[in-house]
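Final report, Chapter 2: Outcomes

The project's central promise was a pipeline that accepts a single protein chain and returns its three-dimensional structure in a standardized token representation, suitable for archiving and comparison. That pipeline is now operational. To close this chapter, we reproduce one record exactly as it appears in the project archive, with the input sequence first and the structure output second.
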Amino acid sequence: MLTRSVAAIVALCSLTHAQSSTERIIPTLSPQVAAAPSLTPSVYDPTAPNAQQCPGYKASNVAESSGGFTADLTIAGPHCQAFGNDIDALTLEVQYQTKQRLNVKIYPKYLAATNYTRYILSPSLVLAPAWDGQTTANSSDLRLTWTNDPTFQFKITRSSSGEEIFSTYGHVIVFEDQFIELVTNMVDDYNVYGLAENIHDWRLGNNFTQTFYAVDAGNTVDGNVYGTYPWYQETRYGNGSANTTAHGVYARNAHGQEWLLRDSTITYRTIGGSFDLYFLSGENGDGSSSALTTISQFISGCVGNPAMQMYWTFGFNQCRWGYQNISVMQSIVDGYRDANIPLEGVWNDIDIYSLYRDFTNDPNTFPVDEMRAFVAELHANGQHYVPIVDSNTYAPNPDNASDAYAPFERAAALGTFIRDPTTGDFYYGDNWPGFSSWADWLVESSQAWWTSELMAWHDDTPFDGIWIDLSEPSSFCAGSCGNGRLNENPVHPPFLLPNDPLQANYQYPEGFNISNATEAASVSAASASQASILSTTTLLPVPTTTTQGRTNPTPGVRNLNFPPYVLNSVLAGHSLVKGSVAPNATHNDPSNTTEYELHNLFGYSISNATYNALLSVFPGKRPFTIGRSTFAGSGRTTAHWGGDNTSTWGSMFLSISQALTFMMSGLPMFGADTCGFSGNTDNDLCSRWMELSAFFPFYRNHNVKATISQEAFRWSSVAEASRRAISIRYSLLTYMYTLFYYAHTEGATVMRALAWEFPEDATLSGAYAQFMLGPSLLITPVLIPNVDTVQGVFPGIGEGTNWYDWYTLQPVTAQPHENVTLSAPLEHINVHIRGGSILPLQTPGNTTAATRSNPYSLVIALDESGEASGSLYLDDGESLIPNATKLVQFAYASGHLTTTVSGSYQAPPPLANITVAGAPCLPKNMSLTVAGQQRPAHNLGLEYNAGVLHVSGIHEHTRSGAWEGEMEMMFHY
């Protein structure tokens, strides 16, 4: 929720610690490095060294094993110290882990216990894929070959075709204590996707640098943001004589890093750690390969399948920073009810807290007794409640007995906080409540403390899930700025807040001046007046900032706060000590591991801790936690929202790309702040965004105070758009839930890029203005203002695929690759069903619980062969390990519908009707068999119109539950 602006974060005034200063030191370079041209450093510096002029390594002492081989790598020339101190001796490990996965590790040969975590990412922190015990070089999809001419280089090829998917040939490996680099050659105009989290085009292109350093700086386009997923998937399209191929590369390293995508190469650089590379063949077992298979290999094989979410979490949720009290919260609930817009849950931002402190309720605005009653009423209505928990813990003023804060005292007694290396005391940064500390998740007592605090707060405020914010972890100052200053607590954040004087927000979406001309003129005048006053008024002291220059690698010394290689972080000066806990802060483990190693894992760790805590709060139930900063593997415990976006059409558009990168990264429970977080929305943008987000897995409207209220019932057009879109979503809940079942069990995707489903169509390589929900639904949202039409393509047309309009079930008429103009009035989003799909639906209710109790129906959309299939997964929607489940498989061919049922879960609602799109005519007669018994068909209703056959009255034969027995229906044409 934070980023109010980068300028605000660096406006630290009197809070800036001495660690925020640095000197610019130009390193002394070896002659060959100094003379070489720069390899386009991400932070432009014409004097930066070209690490590719370093000497590289030579391999020796090769030792074969059943699963691969090891070798020694010895530096092949004089030290170059490009951005660190060269390490002379390395170990190479090559392991054919599974048929589809090959692992290459390169790390220092002599590792002491004290520096192990500097280079090796512990499996206790992040899942480490392992050898399956049987794959060998001869049985693998992939081959590694290498040479020592002129230095060690390697390449990965396919065993079947020899296709080269990764090659360092022509480049050297650089391995220094604060900088490692590896370059791979790429094919022309390559198609690479992933490297989440980024706010960027879906296809990353060949002129892009992805920086990974978790930062609280909003949704910065093309900059580092909250998450770190160092993996990409590459697709290579056939030229007519060859099929499309796909593969993936995962670099298991949590250090700050950059990926430089250039015309013919990708350069991988980190400021520490080791090379731990996993190459994924993407092969299906028949010699072919695909993006979807590659993605599944990454998720299931490398980071772990995502958690199964509770059913209710797929409902629509409402939040705002600015719900001042319980009465306001109740008015929001009432507003949605009165407008007949389904509302699943309401959320609290930091307004709920007493003095912005975790695990507290403001006694004046959110008293505990009233909160209990408020949540109890929500629960009685089948609704839910989720509050925020920030990642910092307020440190009370030691000179003020009335400032006692028990959560801090309990944690301090256990020694669970990260420490300031200069004093050995706890590290004190700054956040909303004032000077604060951060839990050390390497210490076991931190989990016990976190669990205890959440359980105690749940007794006061019976929440249904937890929203973790500021988990980069965010700090409003540089360094341990509260050290020696706790007697000043509580301090105001070192920047003005929304709603403070002269802080009105006058930003509106593009097109607002056209659709709301009169209001836009008034807003423009008010904005100009405020800007004029601000130009002559100093509200806060002018902040001082420093620019991080390159520092000189010093033998035996690692400069943690100002490493020699400058990551292109979006914060002022590219400084790593600003906006977060400083890199030199230490943990309490035996190695005194620093934040330098663990920075990108804080959000991952606090989400894991919250998940584990909620297992105690809700025994036997699936925890629901949603976090901001995530890492590869976070999907096993948390959901994620897109962070501090803006109320702009561009932000809405890029949310699709952002979502797709999370789908392919194993975190499918994703959604953006609908209608935008910062800035003001309008009825046009909010209508379109409520429609779009209805097809994202996580669906929440959320914005900042000092902007206009944007609940869906505020405008009649937004209300109508929301009712229609949510009606579709809720009817599809069982379909979406089934998609999550396959994600949870097989590493499948939920939202899908068109290119994944139609891999031979190169024209879709960069398409993301449309997307698929699962394999069956095509979503075509409006993404520009003030229009009533939208253009979309229908992939596979002319190649065996057909499409049906969701609303009419009429077939689409289009030419291959044609951009079809579709009607899209303000309250309408275009949805199309792919031929060959069978969709199990339920009549939508006002909550997910109400929907689950409503009758089922089936929509059968026939392909060009008159066939279709689908599936339905059922369980109780909340148990961590359900007592019973059920999987129903549907198949339709030659007028014959069959269901195959496995599992014992009982779903009481009946099957009410079946609709067949693409039916040839009204059948002469039909037969129905349920649970092996022939049922009379004379009381079934049959209607046929324009290719759509509708069968009603089936509920009479399925009163004990739609799927309690297998069913057959035969149409005789």
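Archive annotation: The mean pLDDT is 93.
This record, like all others produced under the grant, will remain available to the consortium after the project formally closes.
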